[in-house]
Amino acid sequence: QVQLVESGGGLVQAGGSLRLSCAASGRTFSNYHMGWFRQAPGKEREFVARISGSGRTTYYADSVKGRFTISRDNAKNTVYLQMNTLKPEDTAVYYCAAGVVSTSYRSWGQGTQVTVSS
């Protein structure tokens, strides 16, 4: 298990940018696939982006492709989500997650709120 702490959320106007960070504990961070998910009020949690342990492979939901960029710094045990051209529909609690395989995430952070005003 790895402990995860997200930060960087906040209130931003439509068209603006935010960068979320997720700091992980443990010494084997590079062994984990990392993902970002989000949950809007009244909706189910949905996948946003994921990145392989090496950082060489990334994958995005169609709704954020071209606007969001996931990256990681294994020396800092941190994964990032750069969010540009934000839209009101991006408003949600954003969670980072870790898993030894990209299709199963066992460790989750507490979430950080992102609110995009129109």
Measured between the Cα atoms of the first and last residue, the distance is 39 Å
Cα gyration radius (Å) = 13 Å
| Overall residue-averaged pLDDT value | 96
Determine the number of helices (DSSP H or I, runs of at least 4 residues): 0
Question: How many extended strands?
Answer: 11
The helical percent reads under 10%
Sketch the major β-sheet: 7 strands, mixed
**Cα shape:** globular
Extract low-pLDDT stretches: none
> How do the helices and strands follow one another from N- to C-terminus?
EEEEEEEEEEE
Going by helix content, strand content and strand pairing, the class is mainly beta
Quote the beta fraction.
Answer: over 45%
Structure description:
It is a single chain. The strands form two sheets. Strands 2, 4, 5, 6, 9, 10 and 11 form a seven-stranded mixed beta sheet that branches. Helix content is 0%, strand content 50%. The chain is built from no helices and eleven strands. The chain is mainly β and 118 residues long.
Quick synopsis:
The protein is an all-beta fold. It contains no helices and 11 strands. The radius of gyration is 13 Å and the shape is globular.
Which descriptors apply to this entry?
globular; 118 residues; mainly beta; 7-stranded mixed sheet
Topology of helices and strands:
Layout: E1 4-7, E2 10-13, E3 18-24, E4 33-39, E5 46-51, E6 58-60, E7 68-73, E8 78-83, E9 92-99, E10 107-108, E11 112-117
Parallel strand pairs: 2-11
Antiparallel strand pairs: 1-3, 3-8, 4-5, 4-9, 5-6, 7-8, 9-10, 9-11
